[in-house]
Structure formats: structure tokens, C-alpha cells
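haha ok so turns out i had the wrong file open the whole time. this is the CORRECT one, sorry everyone. sequence first:
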Amino acid sequence: MKIAVLGHPNSWYLRDLQRAAKQKGLEELELTAVSFTQISASVEPTSNASPAFLSDTHDLATYDAVLVRTMPPGSLEQVIFRMNALAMLQHASDDTGQFIPPIVLNSPQAIEMAVDKYLSLALLRQHNISVPRTHVCQQADVAMHAYEQLGPDVVVKPLFGGEGRGITRVSDPALALRAFKMIEQLDGVIYQQEFIAHEGFDIRILVIGDSTFGMRRVNPDDWRTNVSLGARAEPFEASSELIQLARQAAKVVQAQIAGVDILIAPDGTPTVLEVNAVPGWKGLAEATGKDIAQEVLAFTIEQIASHRKKS
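then structure:
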């Protein structure tokens, strides 16, 4: 069984998956790191087969699964090609009709929905999931009008990105206008949310198929609760209500493996901040003592077996 891990070859997550496979005695399982920049595809006019998808040294179509472990930045052309290539890979075929294409976890459709904060939040709200009041635009004057409605305390975020990178909290109109003008000048998208007061923590629920794992991310020194920014991860026993909410949020963006970030609003309402379709688990594994890498591998192998039966 072969699994291509889309991520950096020196990634901690790749090493953790390899460790988990070894401890589980999965000697026949081959885990190979592949970079998004290595992906290439060809279309042959004399063949009915789907395009071939290759890295520098590997034919991705020969793998049983592709596990997406990163979403690196790139130009619009690069991002579109990468997602389209993965989408086509899922439906690859050959002239014999016997070929079984690999599964992609998460699917490119799920990654596209989750990575776009506006799209994912809008979809969540359409499914009656509580989310922060949010406004997205491209002009500073429009953003200032929205700021007057959302403010005076807002969080400005990049439309794409994670781990708290590029997030700014603004509670002064002059600073807000300056930030909005800078984003407009850079041809960016102005994404702002009302700041929801909290007690120094939020909740991350990792969904892996039917399994869920929870932690609290506590940061008494910063309003941001990302572990990468110094927050402390603690085990958290999620209520059935929160587990159901996390599963519903993951389902909305069609992610089978998802990190759902939840904040409890002052009125007690669980509010989904975002859904991550390429979630990390280092802090979660340390906090809960669970071998999350083994859970990911077990789910991936289960999906491969199910995919083969259907094919």
C-alpha cells in the first residue's frame, strides 16, 4: 500500500506518520513525501486515458491515496492548477478500464471551500451554524462603513492562511482606515470580523471520519489562541452538542479530516470561527495523549479499502 503525503519532506507530520506506521507494524505501508510544486500532468491526444500525474520521481496515479498535509502559497495559476490536478487525479483511468485511481484526502473540493475563509463561513451560515459577524470587500471606504457596524473592535484576517499569520486586532478607526487602505493598495481582499470577547481560550475539535478529539487552546497573554503563537493546549471533553456542531461544520465543507475552531460567545452560543481542511495535530496529540497519526493512518487505510470495493 502506497500513500503520497503532499507536504515538505522534512515535515514533522510526515515523520509522525512514519513513526505511527512503524509502531503499528505496517511494514508494507509506503509513505512518500511529495511537494505541490513537483506535480505535473500531461494529456495524450492518442489515448483515452486520463492525464498522467507525476512528481519528479513518482507517478501519483500509482498510489493508493494522496494525503494532503500542506497548502503552500502560490500564484493564482499555481493554486488553480494544483487543485485541478488533484481533482482530475481522483477520476483518472486507463485504456483497460481496470485502473483504480487513488483517493485524495481531503478532496480538492473540500480544501478549496475550507481555505477560503469567506466561502466556508458563508456556507456554514447557510446551514444555520453560528459564525461571527463578518464583512468582506475590496475598497477601504466600503470597509470603513462596515467597520462602523461591526466595531469598534474587529479582527482583520487574510482571506487565505492559518496558524494566526497576518491576523490583526483593530479597535481604533484611524488605524482601521490605514490598514484597509494598505490592503486595497496591495490589491487584497479586506476581511474583517467582530471581535468576540472570550476568557483566553477557544476549542479545537479534530474530526477524523466518525472520530473526534478535543482540546482547549489557552493563551492568557494574547487574544490569539493558536498553539503556534504560544497558546497552551489542554485536553477537553467536548459535549455532545459541540461534537455534533464540529461534525456538521466538517460536513458542510465536505472535509473528512477537519479541525473545527469553536469559541463560546458571551451569551453561551458556540460559534464556529473556521474549519481547517489541512489540520495539524501536534498540540492535540500532546494534550490528549492520543496517537493522532495512527488515527489518521487507520482512517486513510479504511478509506482506501472502501474505495477499492466501490471500484
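The CA atoms of residues 19 and 32 lie 13 Å apart.
again sry for the mixup
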